[in-house]
Amino acid sequence: PEGHLSLPSCYPLPDRSRRGAAPTRLFPLIRHLSYRLTVRLAATPLTPNQITGMSLVAGLVGAVCFTFGTWEAEMIGGLMLVLSYTLDNCDGEIARMKGLSSAWGAKFDDLADWLVDSAFFAGLGYGTSVERNDPLWLWLGLAATAGAAIDYVIRLVIHAKAAGSPGPPREEETTNERKPQDTIDWLIYVFHKLSRSDFSFIVLALVLFDVAWVLLPAAAVGAQAYWIVDLFPRARGWHT
After folding, report:
1. What is the pLDDT of residues 32-41, one digit of tens each?
2. d(CA 202, CA 195)
């Protein structure tokens, strides 16, 4: 409980209620973990950028685990991904709580996200190709990795253009809540959260049933759909 933590009064706790429609309180699921971890990390001297670094390390370790192609290694990898994604939410929450948001921190967070996603798909593709003795799986993993790289470049271009236009700076983007307004918005919102924020839960669930390999053909196509969707303004800026 928050009352058991000795947080300075100047650090407001993240809004757990998340006023709005029920689906926005349910998604992203990772928030239910990050909230509890955030209030504990906020009581430490860790900075948001250090937490981003921890998220990056956890994600890369998880990706390496998937290269072994065994159920045990993939289970460890799946848990490391959940930890990585949880910390990835904590860094932004703590940055807002402590007033430590910065343009560099936002860019570092984007870079860490890309590296973790790319490493995961490449690791899963390699591990599955070795286990099944079929290079096709590696190529599927590399196709998903390429999609993640394209999306990262698109976001760099979008943020670079936004930097020279009126509006809030990059580090303040996450303070502006945006909620779905219509059916199309809801479909994009759920797709975005399940394929990004809550992706680690999907990975862990598939690993439990030893079918993580199904992500490779799905991601080889889905990663391309993700960056295509990100080309449209209404698909960006979900911080509910």
Report:
1. 888 889 989 9
2. 9
